[in-house]
Structures are given as structure tokens and as C-alpha cells.
Amino acid sequence: MKRIFLLKGLDCPNCSAKIEKEVGELDGVQSSVVNLMKQTLTINVAPAAANTIASQIETIVHSHEPGVEVQEETVMNVTKSYSLKGLDCPNCSAKIEKEVGELDGVQSSVVNLMKQTLTINVAQTAADTIASQIETIVHSHEPDVEVSEIVQESYIPEKKQEANESYNNEDKKLTVRLATGAAIYAIGMALTVFAKVPLPVELVFLIVSYIILGGDVVWQAVRNISKGRVFDEHFLMSVSTIGAFVIGEYPEAVAVMLFYQVGEFFQSLAVERSRKSISDLMDIRPDCATVRRNGELITISPESVAIGEIIIVKPGEKIPLDGVVLDGDSMLDTRALTGESVPRSVHKGDEALSGCMNQTGVLTIKTTKAFGESTASKIIDLVENASSRKAPTENFITTFARYYTPVVVILAAILAILPPILLGGGWTEWIRRGFVFLVVSCPCALVISIPLTFFGGIGAASKRGVLVKGSNYLEALNNVSIIVFDKTGTLTKGVFNVTDILPANGFSKEQVLEYAVQAESFSNHPIAKSILSAYGKEIDQSVISDYKEISGYGISAMAGKKKVYAGNTKLMDSEHVEYTACEKVGTKVYVAVDGQYAGCILITDEVKPDSKKAISDLKHIGVEKTVMLTGDDEKIGKAVAEELQLDEYYAQLFPDQKVEKVELLDSKKRQGSKLAFVGDGINDAPVLARADVGIAMGGLGSDAAIEAADVVLMTDEPSKLVDAIDVAKATKQIVMQNIVIALGIKSVFLILGALGIAGMWEAVFGDVGVTIIAVLNAMRILKK
User: Fold this and answer.
1) Which of 49, 294, 559, 588 could form a disulfide with 518 if both were Cys (CB 3.0 to 4.6 A apart)?
2) What is the pTM (predicted TM-score) of this model?
């Protein structure tokens, strides 16, 4: 349970830290965070401890700050989403997200550039007035963006098409405006050069073209200044171009505005193309579903299909919802989910996942999940919302641009004013240099291309069947030095088979297997399933009672009047059963009946075909240490580790001991590096959460995997991890290239401008040209 307490009057950072620490150590408290700015304490607490936690917190707070008033926050928060139709500027998105997040009552604010949405968590008391405030903020940065609240998100193909047409119409209007302004500018320049028209005539053409091309930029700069927002690209362009007019550089002034607008147009197209590329990669959302109701087939939206309804999927159609095949055989194209081109066959009784393309036969499917919970819906949501978790580099660039712009404006002012005062004269020349300096300094290349690269990197990973939940995790994959693997289902197939039964004390093989089956009949563990499969008969579960699953040990149950134990050697030892240890390699299930040892069942698991190559490739790309953790016995762990040439292995571990081992390995890692854990996402949730990067293997159809991990490999192949790191490194490489290109070229032109060598034309390249180069470079990741 999440609970928030107001700490009115708290103003001591030292006391805040102590309160946060001591509250975090209380029984049942999972996390504790004190926000000194908001004077709040936010905790996540187990329900069992929730009733007494308030008094304990008050005691702790008053032991450090007796005058602070402790009061639980009872204000309910609501989540609201807004459509920002036409938003295509990463820089403006970041500003909108930040400013909306600072509004009273807003707990969180996330702009999704791909979906063109703003999602906020806001106090219910402020929810009614928040819409107008959001619209004001959005229009202060992007006047043409249409803001509307999303009451219910639903997929209707016709609406999507209208949205695309609307976007295209905006493009056409902008293209016409740019073409008209450029044509008038060209006519004016031609008349000046060839017809030698007088200056007033030339000025008419140039001023008209300037108003057409840059009127909106200047107006936006004025509006921003009136709201206290001075240092942005609109201000830089307006001041530099109007200044150029003042000092007599009329053609250059219009040219700067023309090329700035052309650059902005290309940036807009690049963002839209990147967005479309990711949408195409994840084009798994079905348009409709054919449902059988009252003996008739009707076509409806997937959201309207209930769990348990019967749907019909013809060849060439996408499967709209997760379900089980009732009738039919077919081949399914799972490429959009897994990145694999080899089709999968499905038959009666098999699971069919939404997003797969039905290729050959007609399938009759009984739905098992609503559309919002289906595999396709979850994957779409993950990829679309990945941009909300920003990488450290993105956050740095946003912060850098915030301080960089005012600094260069001040430097430009110093360059324009100080030298003429010190040198005595030359005002026009130095003011010109100051304006050149301003044009070059615009940080568009960085604030556009860096988010775009991470955006594309997540899309490129998705194409390979790797879901990355945020660009922060994509960047973290670059620094992984230790990778820890779970064994079963990760490095091995997790498909267990009973290979031997070793009876003892007069029991037969059949009796040992039957008692084991009775004990394991309620378990979903792969080992239990292998025993049930080997038995192959119906089980009378009515005779089974007092069933207990003992984590890390095994199972105890009453089978009729007999007490049956089935588990590992630790279970036998804890129940004081005298047994004979099995020396064969494999997973052993020891069985005891009424305290007497009955025998041992030997179960084996195969190593996946590409596990060895995956480990080898990981070492080749720079991973320093590979480690395996397993609950199996020492012999199995050693055999698998030697076969795969792992650096270390730890066997016979309880689930909590796996967390301890990860923490031990984490403490020994190289400074600045990351530790990744790879597991099946079901039994390994605590370890996935503890690792720097939690990676779930085989996420196709696994809700637990998709929920628990930071990165999800959609197939059961360990080699997908190499793909994930490969994409992460390529993304980081392009990000660093763009930083070097942008800052390097701009630095050169800033120096040349300050020295008077570079003029307005060179300044245009220093800004718009560099931005276009960076954007085109960023888009290379989509081809990865």
C-alpha cells in the first residue's frame, strides 16, 4: 500500500535523511522517501503493518523534529491523459513535461512524443482546473498544437486515418508558406542583382518574405518573453535576424529565417518518420475481431470482445486477442513479437497470442484475456511508453540546453558591446559578429537528435524481439560488466524428463512414482509437471489433503492416511528421514512415506542449443564476468557451468540466497559498471528487481516476465541478449557522435564568428546544417 504523510514545518535536510532511513527500517515498510521540498513522506507498506504505521512514523519524526506536524494526506489523485495533436518537437516536449509537472497538485507529468500525449497524475481537487493551465503551457511553446482530453482510448481505423490526413494537411500548409516566402525572397534578390532596383523596392520584397517566413517565430518569441521565458530558439532567431536588418544585412536576415524554418520542417519530418518507423515495427494491433454471437459472425472492435467469447481468424488476418485454439491448424507469423522469421505451427489446444499473423488455416479461438490485457496490447504499451523513462544522457542534454542558451546569449552581448567600448568604435561589425554568434549557438542539433536516437534504438530493439522499457535501461546495457543467469528455463530448456527411478526399502518404482505424483499434483513447477507427465494417468486429488509447498525444500501432503514428502536432501534432513544420496547427475526428487525413505526420482534438463554461443559472444563484446545461480545440486551446476564455460556458478540456492549472491557480486563489480540478471521473470522477480538491469527471458505470453523486468527478450534464446547489447552500443555510439558533431562544429563556427571570419551564411550552416546532419545520423539506428 502506498501512503503519503505531510510533514508540515520540516526544513532540516539532515533530519529528513534520518527520518527517511528510520521509517524505511520499520517492519513491513518496503520503501521510504522524504521530499524536503514538498514536505512529504511517501512509503510503501505491507497491509499487515498499515494500521500501526502512522503512530510509529509520528514517534520517529518527533524524535528529530518535535515541532513538525505529521498528517496523512487524504487527497485522492486521478490520472488524466491529453492528446497533443501536431506535437513533433522533442525540445518543446521536454519543456511542456517539466512545466506541467510543476503545477500545483500535479504529482507526475509525462509527455509521449510518439503517441503525442500528455499523461498526468493530479490531485482530485485540482483536476477540474488543470486542463486550461495545460493548454496555456502547451500553446506557449507550440501554438498550433491541438490540446484535448482523452476520455477513453480506443482504436478506430477511420479516426487514425483522419489524424494522418490532418497531419499531412498541416505539412502542406507549411510547405506552401515556405515556398511562397522563398519565392518572394528569390524574386526580390533577382530584381536587386539583375534589374538594380532601388533599396526601398528590395526592402519591400525582403520584408514581405520575412513576415511570411518568420512572423510566427517572432510572435512566439514575444509571447514567451511576456511569460518570462526569454532564452529559447525563437528568441535567438528573432533577435539575430531583426538585428541583421538593423545593421543593413537584409538578404542575410531573411536567409537565416528561411533556412531556420526549413531546418525545423526537416526536424518535424524526421520525428514523424521515426514515430512511423516504430509504429510500423510494432504494427501488431488488430483492426477488428470476428466474433461468433448467437450463431452469427459479426465484426467488432477488439476492445468489445469479452473473455470466453469465440473468435474466428482467417488466413492473412492478425489474431486480435490471446486465446486457446478450439479448432483448426495453421502456421503463425510471430515476427512482430519475436523478431523471428520462422513461422510457428498451432493446433487444437495450443495457445494463440494476439499480434501474430495467421498464415494458412482458419482458426477458431476461445479468448482468455480482454484486449487491454492481451500480449499485443501490453507490448504496444511498453514500446510506446518507453520514451517516458529517459536516459542519463537525455537528462543531461535537457539540463545542458537550459543553461547553455542563456550563457551564449550573454557571451554574444559581451562580444557585441565590450570590444567597441575597449577598442573605440566598429559597432556595426561587432554587433554583426554578436548576431552570427547567436545564430550558431542554437542548441537544436542536440535537443532534437539525442532523444530521437534513443527513440529509434528502442524501435530497433523491438524489431529484434527485444522490449526495452526505457532509454535509461538501453543506456545501462552499454555498461554491463557482470551478467548473472538463472539456470532453469534460461540457459537450459526447462523441459524436464524423468530418466530414472531408484526405489528403496521395499518400495517399487511404480509406488515411488505414484506417491511423488500425489505430493506434486497441485504444483505448477516444471519438475512437478515432468513427474505428472511420466505418470500419465488420472490422479484422484480428493484423497490428498494438508498440502504444503515449502520454498527451497519441496512438498509435504497427506495421501489418504499416509504422510508423503517429496523434495531435496534438505527436506529429508529437516524431517529426519534416513536416505541414500543419489550420485547421478540430474535433479533429484527424494520421496519419503510416513517417515520412511521410499526412493529417488532422477530428472534431467537439456542445455539450450545457443547458450554456449551466447556466453562466448557476450565475452567477445566486453562482458567481464558471466555467473550462473541455481537451486539445483552442486553436480548439476558444475556440469552446466563447465559445458557453457561460465566464469562462476553457485548451486543449491534458496530464492532469498539468490538475492544475497547478486548483492555480493554487485559489491564487487567495477565502479561505474552495471550488473544484469537474466531469468524467466516468474520465480525470479526479487532478483530481477534487485539487479541494475533485470532481463526476462522468453517473455512471449508471459505476463510475469513483462511486468517484472526492465528488458524483455521475447523468445527463449539467450543470444537475444547479445542483440540487445548490440543495439544499445550502436545507440550510444550514434548519441556520442552527435554530441561531438554538434558541439565540435558549433565551437568552430562560434570562434570563426567571434573573429569575424564567418558571416550569416556560415552561421546558418552552423545551426540548421548541423541539426540536419545530426538528425539524419540519428535515424541510422532505425536501420540497425
Assistant:
1) 559
2) 0.68
**What is the C-alpha R_g of the chain?**
32
The residue type found at 73 is E
Write out the three cell numbers for 286.
488488430
* Beta carbons of 614 and 722 less than 8 angstroms apart: yes
Task: Give the pLDDT confidence of 231-261 residue by residue, as tens digits.
Answer: 777 887 888 888 888 888 888 889 888 888 8
3-state DSSP of 400-435: HHHHHHHHHHHHHHHHHHHHHHHHCCCHHHHHHHHH
Lookup: cell for 25: 527500517
357 grid coordinates: 499473423
The predicted structure's pLDDT at residue 33 = 86
Lowest mean pLDDT among 280-294, 490-504, 579-593: 280-294
SS3 616: helix
Per mean pLDDT, which of 332-336, 360-364, 388-392 is the most reliable? 360-364
**Confidence at 611, pLDDT banded by 50, 70, 90:** very high
* Cα–Cα distance measured from residue 592 to residue 766, given in angstroms and rounded to the nearest whole number: 79
Bigger pLDDT: 151 vs 468: 468
Active site residues: 486
Check if the beta carbon of residue 112 is closer than 8 Å to that of residue 384.
yes
Closest CA to 695 of 720, 727, 670, 671: 720
How far, in Å, CA of 396 to CA of 406, rounded? Answer: 16
Which of 200, 147, 202, 185 lies closest to 261 in space, CA to CA? 185
User: Which pLDDT band, with edges at 50, 70 and 90, does 280 fall under?
Assistant: low
In the block, residue with C-alpha cell 552552423: 766
Q: Distance between CA 703 and CA 35 in Å, rounded?
A: 33
Rounded mean pLDDT, 299-319:
90
Bridge partner list, 698: none
Q: Dig out the grid coordinates for 368 from the structure.
A: 482468455
Q: What's the per-residue H, E or C state across 128-197?
A: CCHHHHHHHHHHHHCCCCEEEECCCCCCCHHHHHHHHHHHHHHHHHHHHHHHHHHHHHHHHHHHHHHHCC
CA-nearest of 623, 281, 307, 644 to 457 is 281
